[in-house]
Automatic annotation (TrEMBL):
Domain PRC-barrel as annotated: residue spans: 4-71
InterPro entries: PRC-brl_dom (IPR027275), PRC_barrel-like_sf (IPR011033)
A Pfam match: PRC
Name of this protein: Photosystem reaction center subunit H
Length: 245
């Protein structure tokens, strides 16, 4: 799960090409599905057309970057009418009014939370006069340009913490949550390793301590990739941007 603001401005890295495609300019919300369907791209060379990446093409969203398999994940919105129509709707969620179905003003949306595996919106943070509360996306009836319409009884369904949005488990929820999180991370790492394995490193890669962990010319193995992933996101991104077939 990610805050929308944690995704904005992240570099977008093509693992297969070892290049930075651009950075995340905006999240394109599909109001019918209640999901983020595209990430638009900020790039100084693209002034005329608007480029984007379908969320389903995203391999992972980390602390440092969004990763995709290769540059083919990028689309031109002018060539995809459905995607272009979503962008033009300009559904932003943050800083919109939250109102009940019967017209009661509840507060203002300050943030929203996205499932970083599927793109579906999980919930929103609602600012009120004296507090901020979390509301599940299940309570939202309409995602409008200026107003979010929620169910009539939503005022009684606020949560105190965003953690309450996470799936409940029957037994030992904390252990199950940690297990699910580790599985998600492991899946992302396996995808990343599969794309990099067998590529040649074009410069020495140093770890957080300053020591060389992978030498230039190395043909990457799973062990090499795992070592870079363990060092942290900045080291791993450095590796992805300095490899070739």
């Amino acid at each position: 799960m990610k805050k929308s603001t944690e995704i904005l401005s992240l570099p977008i890295i093509s693992i297969a090409d070892g290049v930075e495609i651009g950075s995340v300019k905006s999240l394109v919300v599909n109001p019918e599905k209640g999901s983020v369907d595209f990430l638009t791209i900020e790039h100084e060379d693209w002034q005329v057309s608007v480029k984007a990446i379908p969320f389903k093409k995203v391999i992972g969203i980390g602390e440092y970057a969004v990763t995709v398999e290769n540059g083919n994940a990028v689309i031109d919105l002018n060539e995809i009418p459905i995607a272009n129509a979503l962008v033009n709707k300009k559904i932003r969620i943050n800083d919109t009014k939250v109102m009940s179905r019967k017209g009661q003003l509840i507060g203002e949306a300050k943030e929203y939370f996205v499932d970083d595996e599927t793109g579906y919106i999980i919930g929103i943070l609602v600012g009120m006069k004296e507090s901020e509360k979390v509301l599940s996306a299940e309570q939202i009836l309409t995602y409008g340009k200026d107003i979010l319409i929620v169910k009539e009884d939503s005022a009684g369904r606020f949560m105190d913490s965003v953690e309450e949005l996470l799936p409940e488990t029957q037994e030992e929820p904390e252990l199950d949550l940690e297990e699910n999180t580790s599985i998600d991370i492991e899946n992302i790492r396996n995808k990343q390793a599969g794309l990099l394995k067998g590529k040649r490193v074009t410069k020495d890669i140093t770890g957080v301590s300053g020591e060389t962990i992978i030498s230039s010319g190395t043909i990457l193995t799973e062990e090499d990739i795992s070592r870079a992933q363990t060092e942290g996101p900045s080291v791993f991104v450095e590796l992805t941007m300095n490899t070739q077939d």
